[in-house]
What does this fold into?
Amino acid sequence: MLKPRYSCLFLANRVPYPADRGDKLRALAWLRRLSLHYDVTLLAGVDTVEDWRWREPLEDIAMEVRLTPAGGLRGKMRGAPQLIQGKPLTPAYFRNPETARKLQEETSDKRYDLVFVYTSGAAAYLDDLRTPPRATIVDFVDVDSARWEALSHAQSGPMSWIYAREGAALKIFEAELARRADVSLFATEAEAALFSARSGVSQGVRVLGNGVDVAYWGAAAEQPSPYADDKPTLVITGSMDQTPNVDAALWLHDQVLPLIRREEPETRFVVAGARPAPELTALASHMNVVTGDVDDLRPYLGHATVAAAPMRVARGIQNKVLEAMAAGAPLLASPQAVSGLDLRAGDHVSIADGADAFAAEALRLLRSPETRETIAKAAKAHVAEHCDWAGKHAELDHLAQTLLAGDGPEADDEAPDAADPTKVNAD
It folds into this structure.
């Protein structure tokens, strides 16, 4: 007789489909993997009308899919009491009261074996579980409170105060959440260390990095070129409605590109990614190509001369970096964009900080096919060895199975390195 499968409640702040932005990519990877081994109920917040259309493909993955209105004007209104009480706005923004009541009723006589919480924004629902689960995993991904603090420094006036306040309130919330969880996941060693230093919590903190589909992105150069000619091309990719990406693209265009074009006037600048912000679409011209909602980003990377990742505000692993490396595009990045990866500057990636240095390094790469080929080859080999999703899935499997076996997360000490979540991205 077949043994009954464990039940899993997957709490996500946003609908994890499609994987057109970094947070959804990681969430969808974990959802797919857990659904292979567990009876998964997905509870995800809908904060755009378009999200409702993704119920059907998600039902092909999870056993049950519950999409609930979240965010928007009502979410902001729910945050008002939190503002007065000094509590973080983010969890209240995503928690729907009606859904919370249904969850309370359901768990009054039902116990989930595993609850997987994706980001602190979805964690408010933990208080609605009337019967505690056997095990709880919270994937913080990165230190969200630190991101809000960083954003506050880039703002002025009331928004600076609001962002700083949210960072301070989330810092307390994150520490409390980690103490409740059996395991707290972070995408990089740096983020895990930062969290422990800020929160004072180290027990149960683990590292499980992002992956990349090496086979899919590795076929980038085989796709037909989207470029009309062989002009040197500098491309930046990503979700182009996200503030850090918009900031990076505008900085590259305004501060770096003029320096490059003084010496290489034919250099083409391409912004490729979903939902480009109005500030970016305004750049569109024959020399500044802005593309939005393209079906396949691979050819834009596979046929680019240089891929750029000049993020000035970045946390954790930047998926665009892994994708460019897997696609075989020579990558030029800021220190912030690659801080979460164990990469060797000059071998796997070129790194430059500041407009003058970034332009100089871009010119060096544009003029040296041999250097580009060497970097691209090493980068592709690195991600194939260390960053393929298959390895990350195995680590998640081992972690969850250990928790549900009742051995606790410390049992990982006896496991081989390949299955140890603390050994992610180690050379």
Summary: The radius of gyration is 22 Å. The chain has a mean pLDDT of 88. The domain at 214-386 is CATH 3.40.50.2000 (Rossmann fold).
